[in-house]
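ENTRY TYPE: paired fold submission
RECORD: A
CONTENT: sequence, then structure tokens
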Amino acid sequence: MFKHKGKILGYTVLTSTIMLSGCGLLGGETKQKIDPPKTISVTDQKESEKQPAEKAEKTIKTELYLIDKSGYVVPQTLNLPRTKSVAAQALQYLVAGGPVTDMIPNGFRAVLPESTDLSVDIKDGVATVNFSKEFKNYQPEDEMRILQSVTWTLTQFDNVNSVKLKMNGHELTEMPVKGTPINENLSRASGINFDTADVTDITNTKQVTVYFIGGEENAYYYVPVTRRVSNNQKDNVAAAVNELIKGPSEKSNLVSEFMPDVKLLNQPKYEDGKVTLNFDENVYGSFEEKVISQHLLDALVLTLTEQKGIEKVAVQVKGKAEIKNEQGKKLSEPVTRPEKVNTGSF
């Protein structure tokens, strides 16, 4: 049961998409087979190996930032045709009525206006997108969502750090419908799905992005949300963890697996791209079995690896690292970010 906000009453535990002990989760590439069938014929085995290999050669897993029915911009990982222009293709699959139409998950919609043509030029880490005039045919309420979707879709690629926008060859300094300023290159630092409900004065604040859970039973997914926290919180990791513990806004329909009484017993420790967190026992999803919820772990790793320099997360409880997830697997090694997010509903 999701513990923050009781409106959601159940969930299906992630199994095959989760990998621990230093591997990815939520869509990371499997390093070894887990729980293989006990009996399988040689013929069946060869066929089963051949088909995925052939499919893998023809497609590439790509995150598309689509709009869900609540208006959140959410990554959904889809298998797109393999091409040399993966960045341009990803944006083409954001166009309404385009090739994504038959692939789009239930409750989601594309973000770019129908018939929009585009090109992408990547140089020195900057992706410059040139849209056709149809780009301006979007609804005013979608303006920020489009900026966020394009930016986060493109910055999933290793060679893209920031994004510039053009329309008909002319650089955009503001969006064409509501005039949202575009004063500098767009990046993930620009934020996504802003939650400023509890902020009265943003002048002494900074942004952190955390992941909560959206969707509904049998179709949950992780949603990035950008919050503003006080500049007095010097440690960005601790600030992000505190926002996860605080949980989503009561005005939203998002939920969290963190209990509100969870506490960090020490300041986060950093070493060679790894951050180590030491929680009290309230982080357990079950006090009797002393296990950590996989959804809590997923949200934690997704959140912290958004921060520069953090590649993996080690979790301790009262200084001990020998803890288990719901499947009884020991979390004996730090957990890395998945290669792709939301590869399937849970």
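RECORD: B
CONTENT: sequence, then structure tokens
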Amino acid sequence: MSLNKKATIAVSAVLVSSALLSGCGLFGGEEKEKIDPPSEMSINNEDANVETEETTGEESGAADEAAETTTIPTELYLIDNNGYVVSQTLDLPSTNSVAKQALEYLVVDGKVTELLPNNFRAVLPADTKMTVDVKDKVAHVDFSKEFAEYNPEDEARILQSVTWTLTQFDEIEQVKLSINGNAIKEMPVNGTPIGEEVSRSIGINYDNSVVTDITNTKPVTVYYMGGEEDAKYFVPVTKRVSNNVDNNVTAIIDELGNPSLGSKLSAVLPSEVALLGEPKVEDGTITLDFDESIFSSGEENVINENVLKVLALSLTEQAEVESVAVTVNGEADLLDEDGEKLEPVSRPESVNTGSY
């Protein structure tokens, strides 16, 4: 598992090979071939100044061929057929402006069209153009007038998609929006307030179905399973829990086993699983001690792979958590589904990869 909390911008321009891209599924390949030296990619659209040397025709042809086969795995927050905003990791062309490119691949009838997974659609209105300038961890995004031409019911989804797509990059923590150079403090169609800038604190795929007093609650984001039987993927959902809950981790574990009725999402963590004692965080690793109901069905000492993944995805949304260690009844002598000794699990670089 990767130790990166978010996707890094210092990416390598590598030739795509079957060995590199052979991992498919919800997370895809977790180990990537390292090359020397890594080439630094800029997220700033204004920094795309690349000096080139004169080459012979033969060298130029080789360079063109290499350019056509180099890609950057990028998370695009698209909309599925149930209306959820969901990350899909796609291999996009190598570029010096990865943040701007990520937004360009969110545009309806645009570059993403031939790459769209089944049952997913793009987010931004057709023909939307944008510039992206990143300063002091803030991405300043200036959209063309087409940005305001969306259906009202998609307003929250668009805001979430743009924000979560851009904040996958380490160099971006907040997003500031403008249209034709004019800063906006609310979304242009339904007027959703956004203030000076937005971050992941706005949440995603809100679920307030069981909340009676929202003022006495706080948000936590947990991951469930969505999709069809032959094409499953992880879906982030922001839920509200009581302000009286001292420990967000305990609240997250409780919510992981309880997707809302009628949500078309399923829990990976069994609802009967119980924590034994208070979770402990040390050097970025949180240790969770569960009862035996966390074991894979019929397999003593074995923890299901997807259980580990939803724990890592959900808990690393907490700022102080970088990886998750699991014990059962205080014992750490556990195995993963490959029969290997269970090690602390961190958030993967890429989520929801694979073919559909």
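NOTES ON RECORD B: Confidence is low (pLDDT under 50) at residues 1-5, 7-24, 29-41, 46-58. The first strand starts at residue 71 and ends at 80.
STATUS: closed
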